[in-house]
Design goal:
The complex is a heterotrimer. Chain A is mostly helical. Chain A has one domain (about 1-120). Chain A is built from five helices and no strands. Chain B folds into two domains: about 1-30; about 50-250, Alpha-Beta Plaits. Chain B has helices at about 1-25, 25-35, 65-75, 85-95, 125-130, 155-160, 195, 205-210, 225-230; strands at about 50-55, 100-105, 110-115, 135, 145, 165, 185, 215-220, 250. A three-stranded mixed β-sheet of chain B has the order 8-1-9. In chain B, strands 2-3 form a two-stranded antiparallel sheet. In chain B, strands 4-5 form a two-stranded antiparallel sheet. Chain C has one domain: Formate dehydrogenase/DMSO reductase fold. Chain C has a two-stranded antiparallel sheet. The mean pLDDT of chain C is about 95. Classes of the chains: A mainly alpha, B alpha+beta, C mainly alpha. At the B-C interface, α4, β2, α5, α6 and β6 of B face α5, α6 and β2 of C.
């Protein structure tokens, strides 16, 4: 009797966590961002998930010291493609939450879960911002 | 006779193309062109050396258009005084990449105005003293800070003979895509490096100056406007005694 | 040779914990102030784009300079073979480490990006004296640690003299490196001087010894341990000589500057019309920091009294802080000479309009951070002497020098 209940609880937990993590996996790309319409264009999704920080860190030195901007790995490129807008058409901070729906935006989705602190957006802008106007 | 005709046609073409270029380079349209301009795909090399020639005889008294232009393009105008800071201390703590200075000659009493920014030295003291190498001179002569490596020790600010560098004293809420900026790092004029790397001509200060006092160009190109101008008349470095071989030269002081 | 006995600091428990509680409270307040500065950014301090190094650096550089000087007492026993100082070596090594840790902590916590300490320790530009200093400071801690080990572990004692020599040479290079932080700056009138490096060395001798004397006298008096005049008067005479040497360097530095017309404006600023900097120079550094202590230390009666020695040591330390303030902040406040043959009428970036100095007024948070570094050094020292055998059991005259009665 106890064995059965234990087994049932275990199965339920597994199914639940699969459902939840599966849901997270689907939702890391935000509806309405440019990336939502595209297939994995920089690199296969699994590779990006595991190695995106290596691409970004390697590229930043190349960009700053050699001036190379023609790259898929620029941080501003990530922001440009993955940033989403709220219902009023305003860009939402890519490392934050949607204030209306509390939906975690692209970076926050995984980074809050994994507990890896992001330092990029203390300096880089988390929404596309143009100047000179 | 045909020479005159050719010259007139040349003049017309030159004026027309300059007018067209000026329209294209006007601020609102420019940033569209940055987005669509050609990003650099080959590393910078020392075949170029970028610099400025400032003609202080053309710099108008009381004008600070270059400062405004730079602040707009590089997002310095997005910085807000922190709540609780006094105006006086904010004046001394907010970053500036370029400022205007008015000086009077001790002997002649002659007064001139001039813009002052990072001099992009060939032998920059700021690069020598940076412990992590964050302050560096790019191959094309631009002296700048790699803010990924900057630890905010401010030694470069101590070492700069021109007080060109600024420290970010506060949390930054709004910053542009072309000019990231964050608390605790040091920055200075980078000759609009986002333009350099996206094949967009000129600098914000040159574009904003309506008196033609600022001329940007490639010092290594003998045919560039700046090289020709440097050959034509005298120019000086600030603190020439330090033998830093600056990339920014002045005329008229 | 008679064996020296060392014993842990034995003051009564309630007093010990009471002292730690007070020090801990100060450290807590300093910690809160530091967190506030780090969280908000440097806008809450008096530092700005002209005076980029403020009160924390004054304290930090003082502590670092004093740290290398504190090791001198041990060097006297090992490198210079003066056996009478040998028993003082352990406290000397300990103070060298704690003062350095206190100073470095203040420096790191004042960085714009203190969380990037790892970057600072792994990415180097070796043309920068700062980069060399990181190796020198960390190496100093390691070498002094080994030095202490050779002093405290009987089996390692045969390495004592060798490691002692290495430590002495290393500390000389370290203090030269610290002075060179300023000496290598070509841009500023007050700095670009090779003399600053040896001047920092001689300052380290005095400040380190002054702190050493105070700690020695406090720990011994508090516990009632015998501290005889023989050793104490030797130390106080040394302190007097070191202060006199600083005085010589200060005179040479300023006379040399005064000879060059280029530097006249800076000299006038420090010596005559620099406001707080002039006051701190004459009253703080020269009078209270050098002349009065020399007067006390060489006075036939005052120089032999415990109160006189304590007073002189305290004044030397205060004078050292004043000296650092004048050098570090005065040197920055004096406007850069970008246009030597022009007068500046207006500037959009505080370029010394009409020769005016830059404005800096220290904030409480900065003082707490800097002072907290000193308190931390003291706290760690007191904990260490309580836990381990750093202090000699007795420094009575018969123990120190039995042959000369």
């Amino acid at each position: 009797m106890v064995n059965t209940i234990t087994r049932l609880i275990l199965i339920a937990a597994l199914v639940f966590s699969a459902a939840v993590s599966g849901a997270d996996r689907k939702n890391s790309v935000i509806e309405g961002s440019k990336a939502a319409e595209l297939d994995a264009c920089v690199a296969p999704t699994a590779l990006m998930r595991r190695e995106h920080f290596k691409f970004i860190e390697h590229q930043r030195d190349i960009t700053v010291h050699q001036g190379i901007r023609d790259t898929d790995h620029s941080l501003s490129g990530c922001v440009d493609c993955h940033v989403a807008k709220d219902t009023h058409g305003k860009h939402l901070p890519i490392d934050g939450l949607n204030p209306e729906t509390a939906e975690k935006q692209f970076c926050a989705g995984c980074h809050e879960y994994s507990g890896v602190q992001l330092d990029c957006f203390s300096c880089h802008t988390n929404v596309p911002v143009t100047t000179g106007k | 006779m045909s020479d005159n005709f050719d010259q007139n046609r040349r003049d017309f073409v030159s004026v027309a193309s300059k007018a067209a270029a000026a329209t294209l380079i006007a601020p609102g349209v420019l940033l569209q062109s940055v987005a669509h301009a050609k990003p650099r795909s080959e590393p910078v090399s020392d075949e170029n050396r970028y610099g400025l020639l400032i003609d202080t005889t053309k710099c108008a008294d009381g004008c600070s258009d270059c400062v405004t232009g730079c602040e707009k393009e590089n997002g310095l105008d997005m910085l807000l005084k922190p709540k609780g800071a006094s105006d006086e201390s904010w004046e001394r703590q907010r970053p500036r990449w370029i400022r205007t200075v008015k000086v009077k000659d001790r002997l002649s009493g002659h007064v001139s105005s001039l813009p002052l920014m990072c001099q992009h030295c060939e032998h920059p003291p700021c690069v020598d003293v940076c412990p992590t190498g964050a302050s560096f001179r790019r191959a094309d002569g631009i002296v700048m800070v790699d803010r990924h490596t900057c630890i905010g020790c401010r030694y470069c600010m101590m070492a700069c003979p021109y007080k060109a560098r600024s420290f970010i004293h506060e949390n930054v809420q709004l910053r542009p895509t072309v000019a990231p900026r964050g608390k605790g790092c040091v920055e200075s004029c980078n000759l609009c490096v986002h333009r350099r790397d996206n094949d967009v001509a000129g600098t914000a200060c040159q574009d904003a100056c309506q008196h033609g006092a600022i001329l940007f160009g490639d010092l290594n190109d003998p045919n560039s406007e700046i090289s020709q101008a440097l050959k034509e008349r005298n120019h000086t470095q600030l603190r020439a005694d330090l033998k830093l071989n600056t990339g920014v030269r002045y005329r008229g002081i | 040779m008679k064996k020296t006995y060392y014993r842990e600091w034995g003051i009564e428990s309630p007093r010990y914990w009471g002292i730690l509680a007070v020090l801990g409270a100060i450290l807590a307040v300093a910690g809160v102030a530091t967190l506030h500065m780090e969280h908000e950014g440097h806008w809450v301090t008096g530092m700005n784009n002209e005076v980029v190094w403020g009160l924390p650096h004054v304290f930090a550089i003082f502590l670092i300079v004093a740290a290398s000087g504190a090791l001198n007492v041990a060097a006297l026993g090992s490198v210079f073979g003066k056996t009478v100082y040998k028993s003082l070596g352990r406290l000397s090594g300990l103070l060298a480490m704690t003062l350095l840790i206190g100073g470095l902590l203040v420096l790191v916590l004042d960085l714009g990006q203190p969380s990037r300490l790892i970057v600072a320790m792994t990415t180097y530009n070796f043309k920068s004296i700062f980069a060399w200093n990181i190796y020198l400071y960390v190496g100093f801690l390691a070498i002094v640690g080994v030095y202490l080990f050779t002093m405290m572990e009987r089996k390692a004692q045969r390495f004592y003299k060798g490691v002692g020599l290495l430590a002495f040479v290393w500390r000389l290079i370290l203090t030269t490196g610290t002075g060179s932080i300023f000496g290598f700056i070509v841009a500023r009138q007050g700095y670009d001087a090779a003399l600053l490096a040896p001047m920092f060395i001689i300052m380290s001798f005095a400040y380190g010894l002054a702190i050493y004397l105070l700690v020695l006298m406090f720990t011994f008096n508090a516990e009632g341990r015998a501290l005889g005049d023989k050793i104490l008067l030797r130390l106080k005479n040394l302190l007097g000589i070191f202060v006199a040497a600083i005085f010589y360097f200060v005179v040479v530095y300023h006379l040399t500057n005064l000879y060059a017309t280029e530097n006249h404006a800076y000299e006038a600023f420090i010596l005559l019309n620099g406001g707080i900097y002039t006051t701190l120079f004459w009253v703080g550094w020269v009078l209270l920091g050098m002349l009065v202590p020399m007067g006390i230390l060489f006075h036939p009666a005052l120089g032999k009294s415990r109160g006189g020695i304590v007073g002189a040591s305290v004044l030397v330390i205060l004078g050292g802080l004043a000296a650092m303030y004048v050098i570090v902040i005065g040197g920055q406040a004096f406007p850069l000479s970008i246009f030597p043959d022009k007068i500046i009428l207006e500037s959009g970036f505080q370029d010394g309009v009409g020769g005016a100095a830059s404005i800096y007024s220290p904030s409480l948070s900065e003082f707490l951070l800097g002072f907290g570094g000193m308190v931390l050094a003291l706290t760690v020292t007191l904990v260490a002497v309580r836990m381990l055998k750093f202090l000699p059991a007795s420094l009575a005259d018969e123990v120190v020098d039995p042959h000369h009665g």
